[in-house]
Amino acid sequence: MRFLEEQTHRYAEEIASLYELERAACAQAEDAARALEASYDGPVRALAAALELRDDLSGRHAERVTAVVTGVSFLAGIARDVVTFHHKHWEGGR
């Protein structure tokens, strides 16, 4: 009987250790996903700025397109929080 108790205790410790490793890996993956998403912001802003500088007649075109895409996304039923986040993120950085 003692052997079973010891074995059960070892299994419980191993499961706890694996759980901690899994939680750490998940946190690391979430951080990496956030960093990847944030890395898209700079190049997109640079391209938008280049588009706006290209022609005085098309100034602020990228912002108008963003507003139209946001409206169409709402009508299409795309998650409101996703669209709102990205739209506010764009507007907030200007």
Per DSSP, the total helix count is 3
Give the end-to-end Cα distance, rounded to a whole number of Å: 69 Å
Task: Specify the overall morphology.
Answer: elongated
The portion of residues forming beta strands comes to under 5%
Q: How many strands in all?
A: 0
Order of helices and strands: HHH
- Main sheet makeup: none
Question: What does the average pLDDT come to?
Answer: 77
Rg value: 24 Å
| Class from helix and strand fractions | mainly alpha
Please bin the fraction of helical residues. over 70%
The low-confidence runs, each spanning 5 or more residues with pLDDT under 50, are none
What are the salient characteristics of this protein?
3 helices, 94 residues, 87% helix, mainly alpha
Structure report:
It is a single chain. 87% of the residues lie in helices and 0% in strands. The mean pLDDT is 77. Helix 2 packs antiparallel against helix 3. The protein is an all-alpha fold and 94 residues long. It contains three helices and no strands. The protein has helices spanning 2-54, 61-76, 80-92.
What's a quick, concise take on this entry?
With 94 residues, the chain is an all-alpha fold.
Strands, helices and their partners?
Elements (H helix, E strand, L loop, with lengths): L1 H53 L6 H16 L3 H13 L2
Helix pairs in contact: 2-3
